[in-house]
Each structure stands twice: as structure tokens, then as C-alpha cells.
Amino acid sequence: MFVPKVNEIQRRRLDAGYSCQKLSLLAGLPKNAIYRIELNQARYTYPIRARAIANALHCKVEDIFTITEGA
Question: In whole angstroms, what is the distance from residue 53 CA to residue 69 CA?
């Protein structure tokens, strides 16, 4: 499972100058996806979504998600 590091995702998004909607678009996700993660409404994230967010933020998945057993 991929558990979002909410504060780290938000910090990197803000440092990049992206709104939640802009990051969602860059990652190819629904526009509310980043909002849900940052509001801690998404306990886990699918690996493909985690990779898309990491790619949009130009970082490694491990930088912004904790990977737990079963992933």
C-alpha cells in the first residue's frame, strides 16, 4: 500500500507553484484527487496514482509516499 506523506506532498506542490487542480491535471488524475490526499481523506493511494503524482512533482515515489507491505 502507498500511504501519502501529506505534508511532504503539499510542501512540494507549493514549492513548485502548483494549485491542487494544476497538480491533478499534470498527474492525469481527477481534479479532486490531490484535494482528497491533502485533506487526509485518502488513507491509501494506488501505485499508478502515486507514480503519476511523483512524476508531476519531479521526485521519487518514496519521497512523498510510505510504501507498506502488500504494495
Answer: 20
